[in-house]
Specification:
Blueprint: E1 6-11, E2 14-20, E3 29-35, E4 38-42, H1 47-58, E5 61-62, E6 65-71, E7 77-82, E8 86-87, H2 91-100, E9 102-104, E10 112-114, E11 124-126, H3 134-138
Parallel strand pairs: 6-9
Antiparallel strand pairs: 1-2, 2-3, 3-4, 5-8, 6-7, 7-11, 10-11
Bound molecules: iron/sulfur cluster (SF4).
Iron/sulfur cluster binds next to helix 1.
């Protein structure tokens, strides 16, 4: 998966990468210079930007969002998210997990749907409400 918020350019012997900081709405454009083991960050208006850039270079993470099928609800799906940002490389297996899961209505926000599914302490949780559909229940749906 490509990160649309970054670009790379070779400067001298090192590599410079431009990325937008996603830690707050200000969205500073960060310049990240890699010279061997050394990484220099500029363009950040606060320290969070430096931490963000270092994480982006070493092991980028994203909050995962998706939806799950709901059984017996007034609507057929509910939105879900990871309880913490996941490694960007792990996104495909979280997508696959969501394909295999189904929840039973009623659903409320922050219900744990999958507890620590990949052993990294991150859960899959719901983010919205789905009420029970009593008509569906009577008709065996
Ligand atoms: S560097 Fe600081 S001020 Fe700039 S976007 Fe990141 S968190 Fe916000």
């Amino acid at each position: 998966m490509e990160n649309s918020s970054s670009s790379e350019a070779s400067v001298g012997s090192g590599m410079t990468k431009s990325i937008y900081c996603l830690r707050c709405p200000r969205g500073c454009l960060l310049q990240v210079e890699e010279e061997g083991e050394q990484i220099v960050v500029s363009g950040n208006a606060c320290k969070l930007g430096e931490a963000f850039a270092l994480q982006e270079i070493r092991s980028p993470r994203r909050l995962f969002t998706s939806s799950l099928c709901v059984r017996g609800g007034t609507v057929p799906v509910v939105s879900v998210m990871s309880s913490q940002p996941i490694l960007r490389d792990d996104i495909p297996r979280w997508v696959e997990l969501c394909r295999t899961l189904e929840v039973e209505a009623p659903v409320v926000p922050e219900m744990c749907v999958a507890k620590n599914p990949f052993g990294d302490g991150i859960d899959l949780i719901t983010t919205w409400y789905v009420e029970r559909d009593n008509d569906a229940e009577n008709q065996g749906r």
